[in-house]
Structure formats: structure tokens, C-alpha cells
Hints:
By secondary structure, this protein is α+β, with helices and mostly antiparallel strands.
Amino acid sequence: MSAPYLLRLLSISLAAFYLIHLVAGLLVSLLAPLAVRAAEHMRPREAARFLLALRLLPASFAAAVVAGLCVPSYLWLEPAASGEELGLACLTSALLALACAAIALARSWRAASRSLGYIRYCSMVGRRTCLGSEASPAWVVEGGKPFLVLAGIVHPRLMVSSQLVAALGADQLAVAIRHEQAHRVSRDNLKRLLLLLAPDVAPFWRSFDALERGWARFTEWAADDHAVAGDPRRSLSLADALVRVARLGASAATPPLITSLLADDRDLQQRVDRLLQEPRKMEERRRPLAVVIAAATVCALFAAMLHPSTFYSVHGLLEHLTR
């Protein structure tokens, strides 16, 4: 199939992205069990950052290679001619890349729509008030199932059912709110959106579930540690609050871009056990692993771009791809 110059560039870029992402994604998915086990020996916040960086690595690396090497080599070395042929492998890879991107965008749009609808409903029927010793603003909703969630990405809102407020004591409610505030500080709802936007290895194949489940688990542990801040009394209050919330049946599924105090009670036992152990000190602020990985990737690509021979090699690979 013949294609104009720019359409040929687009097709080659999509095909190259898919193939690079496929290789990197398969490697990451194979290493996922080992990565999750390694993360268990890290502090929860550090472990969550590590797994998030690993999940986003295939797409980030593929995009960086295409933008930093494939596109410049094509624009520099490919003659500005039209009507050149595109092979079946190139077209198939480009279509698969479009399919993966469309699926990621569709699930992100669906999740954002559900979350926005949830926020609008709670804001409409709820009343804005201040809860807890730290006077945190929240929307209290009457009736329905008990819940305590942080909803929204740009301006996250704390939303809680009146049933749950009545069921928790003052100390328990205060530390539960501190838990949700930890999610706000970490921008965990934004990270959930990034996970939804990250494409899969192949259409309709969720190959990174282990990493995403591990990230969600360590994110909750990190929020627990931030909420109690090494205070044994807060640890006991949060453990009691989690048990009470579970008994109320407040672990029901929430929209994907909303963080709940107890979204999944399968991790309840581990969370309670951690809170009843010796309190952990607050983590020191460290450079996020994702930033380190991104900086290393940029440096590697920049070093490669300093050698013109790299572009000739890349262009030769692109020529093989189009045949």
C-alpha cells in the first residue's frame, strides 16, 4: 500500500511504538511477580512509586524512542517522496497501536464520566461541612450505603455518608480523614488516571494487573502510615475504624478514579495487622523513582542522538519495518 510522506511517517511511528512497547511490556509483565515481591521489602510509599514507574515504563520508553530517534531519523534521511509502499507488518502494527490507544482512551473516558457523575450526585444531595479535629471540609450525604471517599483529580473532594459518620468515634473519624488526605497529597487519583491511560501490550489483554494491584495495595499502606504518623493511639483508632467500616459493608466498589477508605476488604487483615504492630516512623522525602527512571531515559536518548550513526541505524531498521 502506497502512502504520502507524512502519512507514512505516522504509520511508521505508530508501528515502531507498538513493537517497542510490545517487547518492553512483555518483559515488564514477566518481571511483575518479582517486582511485587521486591517491593514488599521497601517502604510502602517507595514501593508504590516503584511499581507505578514500572507500569508506565513501557509506554514512556516507547514514546521517548519514537520521538527522540525514529521521527528525527525519518525526517532527516527519508527522501521527501510520495507513493512509497507500506508493508503488511507495518500496517498491522500501526493498527494494533491505534487499537490499544483507543481502548485506553475509552476506559479512561468511561472512568472519568462515572467519577464526575458520582461527584455531581454527592455534591447535589450532600451538605458541605467540616469534620474531624483538623476541620477538613467534606460533603456529608444522607442515606445510601456507607462510604468515605476522596473524589476528583484537580480539586479532590472528601465525601462521606452520614451513616459512617455516626458509626465512627471522633478519633476514628479524624484518622480516617487523615488517611484520605494522604491520598490527596500524593495525588493518587491522578495516578489512577495515568494507569488507565497507559496502553496494554495487546488489545483486550490486561497484562499489567499484578503491578496495578500491587500499586493499589502499597498506596493504601502508605496512606495508613501517613495518617497515623507513628502514633500508637492513631494506629489503634485507624485499625478500629477499618474493622467498623468493613462490618458496615462499606467496601463496595467505587468509580475507578475515586479513592475509598476500604475499596477492597481482601487487604483488610494485612492493613489491620500492620497498624497493630510497632508504629512506623514517617518516611523521609526522597526523589521519586519515576523521576530517576525518566531522567536516565532522557540522558540515554540524548547520548544516542549525539552520534549521527545512531540515526542511520534507526533509519535502516525503519526501512526493514516498512517492507
